[in-house]
Design goal:
Order of helices and strands: HHHHHHHHHHHH
Structural class: mainly alpha
Number of helices: 12
Helix content: 40-55%
Distance between the termini: 64 Å
Shape: flat
Amino acid sequence: MANIFPRYSNLIPIKIAICVVALALLVVVSFSYYATPKSTRVGYMPDQPIPYDHELHVKQLGLDCRLCHSFVEESGHANVPTADRCWTCHQHVKTDSEKLVPLRRAIDKSYEGYTGDPVKWVRVHKSPDYVFFNHSAHLNRGISCVSCHGQVNEMRTVFQAKDHSMGFCLDCHRAPEKHLRPLEEVFNLEYTAKNYVETHPEFAQQLLAFNPEFDVAASEKDVQETVGSFIKQHHSVQPKESCATCHR
């Protein structure tokens, strides 16, 4: 009886096996990349043209975030400071420091190396182009810089502390009470819910009226969730979870 299958059909099982193995390798490689901090840039700490020390400026000297990121409460983006903002202080402080050469080149016309070119800061945090995020919308409802950027006030060199993944954002949208704080404390990077309640007795009374079982002696986590739940109700915070919220 004649062979009804062409001879090349003998290679089909081998080709299928090769494709299956290749597909499996692709899945492993993709998972090993996209499921690790490498893809989310956690720990990314680029060198900056000027080694700006947030721990010194924010924690030790007490500078407010808005002094440099001046439009963050009004804009969707957190702007970086221009050279003239830095020069406001540094034309009087540490003027001759080698670390400030890029600043002097950008702003100090009396400096022999003056070029007028802006300081080329290296961006640390960056969302994909298809993601919409509005800084002002979050800050004006009680979400602090710390929730997304970590304890920047303790960073000698700024790095990306949170993964900023879709899951990270959804966790907050589903349980905003874990992060909400009084609006006047949004830029207080050393804020704790327990300390705030202990130093604001009138607010503590509001919390007791809101939740008669509230106990200021409870853990920081429990106090924060009570404070956050109160603020969530008081400000009618209703985070959306639909795809269109961030993907526009």
